[in-house]
Amino acid sequence: TRRVEDWDGERRILDGIIAFDPATGEEKRRYDMKTLVESGPFAPLARRYPDDDDLFHTNTLEHLTGAPFAAGQWLVSFRHLDTIGVVDLEQEALVWALGGMFGAQHQPTMVGQNILLFDNEGLPGRSRVLEIDPRTQQVVWRYGEEPGQTFYSRTLGSVQRLPNGNTLITESNEGHAFEVTPAGQRVWSYTVPHTAGDQDQFIASLYELVRLP
Fold it and tell me: Which three-class secondary structure state does DSSP give residue 23?
């Protein structure tokens, strides 16, 4: 991110993508996220820029390898726009976007041809996980809406689809991670043991838990 003077003279924090040479580590090219958004068919997203000087708060950049998007494109997440999208660096534009179904989301990731994401503010005072078919914009799997499924992380949060079909969810602000089956049954959980405060009221955040092979 970088702080620059924007079109209206205000100071803004703008996100970007930097390409490096994998052999030397040298910077090859910079892409400004504001330019990528406003150069493509989703330029009207500019009307949704927040009053906060952090326009996008882009929190995900995932390389795409194929259908339903083109290999070599990049999946991104704009937390402050409640929007996810796909950037094509050859076209230097945002070429696909989806919003209005989730809020302040984190870590959209491809699972097959669907997108799995952590929906921080999708419900009042609650988070949830959604799996969305980007071709139909339909939710094909969800967790967090039924009784007994309550969890919440105002910031951060992550998801990982496991080889056995279960989903690993990191409830970051609560220092908690848990695994659920496709039917929504919790089968494993972990809570960070480190606390602080006179009454142990503060718990260490858990940024992301990843299941290794």
Answer: coil
Confidence of residue 135 (pLDDT cuts 50, 70, 90): very high
- Contact, 178 vs 190, CB < 8 A? yes
**What is the number of residues in the chain?**
213
Q: Is 61 helix (H, G, I), strand (E, B) or coil?
A: strand
Least Cα distance to 153 among 95, 79, 61 occurs for 79
In this prediction, residue 53 carries a pLDDT of: 82
Decide: 154 and 171 in contact? Cβ < 8 Å.
Answer: no
User: pLDDT tens, 30-52?
Assistant: 999 999 999 989 999 988 988 87
Buried-exposed string 162-181: b where 16+ CB fall within 10 A, e elsewhere: eeeebbbbbbbbbbbbbbbe
Picking from 30, 2, 28, the residue whose alpha carbon sits closest to that of residue 15 is: 2
Q: What is the pLDDT of residue 192?
A: 94
